[in-house]
Design brief:
157 residues, alpha+beta, Arc Repressor Mutant, subunit A, Gyrase A, domain 2, 2 domains, four-stranded antiparallel β-sheet, two-stranded antiparallel sheet, 48% helix, elongated, repressor, DNA-binding transcription factor activity, DNA binding, Arg_repress
Length: 157
């Protein structure tokens, strides 16, 4: 069989279609799924696509997760989901001056950071997420203190 040559937009649309219909837990599974459709991709390409599409990993039980599109419509939806994620997956929040570090369960930092970004708060300059750590830059030291209190409250529910 001949592999299909897709544009980036076509490939990303195909990824969205797959994760909307199927439970895909890892980048490797997504690579295999695309290859089953004769779409040749590398895991590095899939990693970039996941970031650009702002996919999040949602828990599906028994320690497993699946990729999903973050489909928050309103500010309240984002706040509710952020609270749920903080209660379930955030382990620690620490602060130094106007910077905060949020430690999460493996694989959940990106989803939490995405929701923080979607709030578009004036007191948050920006976020940077890895696998289990989020770096949050607050506008001022005072705002960082306030954010830390707010994040601790979210952790407690």
């Amino acid at each position: 069989m001949v592999s299909k040559e897709l544009s980036k937009e076509q490939r990303q649309k195909r990824i969205q279609d797959i994760i909307a219909r199927e439970s895909i837990s890892t980048q490797g599974e997504l690579v295999q799924r695309l290859r089953a459709d004769n779409i040749q991709v590398t895991q590095a390409t899939i990693s970039r696509d996941i970031n650009e599409l702002r996919l999040v990993r949602l828990p599906i039980g028994k320690g497993r997760h699946r990729y999903a599109l973050a489909q928050m419509t309103g500010h309240t939806d984002v706040e509710e989901e952020l609270g749920r994620l903080f209660q379930n997956f955030v382990h620690d929040v620490d602060r130094g001056e106007n910077m905060l570090v949020i430690r999460t369960a493996d694989g959940h930092a990106t989803g939490v950071a995405l929701l923080l970004d979607r709030l578009r708060r004036d007191d948050i300059v920006g976020t940077l997420a890895g696998e289990d750590t989020i770096f949050v830059v607050a506008r001022t030291t005072l705002e960082a203190e306030s954010l830390m209190e707010e994040f601790h409250a979210l952790m407690l529910g």
